[in-house]
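ARCHIVE CARD
Drawer: 12
Card no.: 0347
Subject: one protein chain, sequence and derived structure
Cross-reference: see card 0346
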Amino acid sequence: MPRESLIKRAGNEHSGAKCFLISGSIWFALGTLAGLGSAIHLVAPDFFANISWLEFGRIRQVHVNTVLFGFVVSMLIGCALYILPRVLATKLYSERMAVLASIALNLAITIGDIGLMMGLTQGREYAEYIFPSDVLVVLAFALLGICFIMTIVRRTEPLLYVSSWYFVGAILWTIVMYPLGNVMWHPATGAESGVIDAIFLWFYGHNIFGLLVTPLAVGIAYYMFPRIAGAPLYSQILSIIGFWSLLLFYTHIGAHHLIQAPIPTWLKTVSIIDSYAMMLPVATVLINQWYTARGRFNKFLVNPAAKLMFIGTIWYAIVCVQGPLQSLASVQRVTHFNNWVIGHAHIAVLGFTGFIALGGMYYVLPYISGRKIYSEKLINVQYWLLLLGLVDFFIVLTAAGLIQGQDWLHGATVYRTVPMMKPYMTLRLMGGLLIISGAFIGLYNVIMTFHRGEQIQL
């Protein structure tokens, strides 16, 4: 294709949203496939013996980062690129800039994943990608920041709906947070030394969820709930309280991952208090959205995209009950460093933000493609596969974690508890197969929507 045609296509309306949503669907399939590799290791440790790039320590990092940045972040941004201009009653400032941001983020994930499989890693949770990937991630968010802010500056709608607050906040907070968390002033290691690095890491490690994927997901839900319910938002005041209290409390809670570490006691105390204070922004979001849908919940049951969205808010409630509970030192003695935390992470990433990302994607897709969803039946199949797989993960990993934690608390050594985990890891693998099937069914549905979906006039 001639260069002029590529440039013209990149400037077409919704081209940025399309790039992010399609790439998010692809990364969802690839990321869960990497998860299968790590799950197989936990059942049959020698299955990939002598295949270095498939070793657990490498493929697990690929799975985590691909699902987080490739699937969840990409898909949420794709939805935001459609919603922001809608609520501002203006065109996106630059579709080409959004496309470039998508290219930069996809290059970051590709380079990062290849590096991880080669054993090149910064070795820090959610910050494993090497320096070139970090630069590309910051570039992608800088481009999105300019694009979002300039769209607001050029808007024709005088009022800023709350979704705009969350979208712009997520991008700007990440531009500041990502370089700090990845210690980009030390490109060779991506880390500080000693306990200072742990504090930097968990400031970032928790805020990548609280100040990036959470506000993006909440902003999408704030747009979709009134649209699907056919009713105005229950309370604008609650939405503003939720936004500012999220920023006020979430930034300080990462240290609750370090309760057992030699960090200042005041920092531990603040992290626990703010973990419980987080119930305020969560409650404002859920009350606001569920009250908006009050008396109209039947609309969320018959609409496949809405159903994904609604179940995402339920997972949000569960996550934010677990979070404060497991921040307590007395609870962490049982739950820390075991499968309980893994179960919590899965319902946060896939259950809350992942389900909302998918719901938003299926809602937005007809508007940006000009075609009906290829198969609503396939959305329902994907919904049930993901839900059953995730419930399996939650129950199995919570049970496994409690067993591990209780045994360790009573003096059992780690190596004696490992054989006890095999049946739980087998059940986890079965749940993972359901999730992987759902991811590939979703990818097929997205591809077929663009190629064979019935054309519609919007």
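Annotation on reverse: Residues 10-452 form a domain with the Cytochrome C Oxidase; Chain A fold (CATH 1.20.210.10). The longest helix spans residues 195-229.
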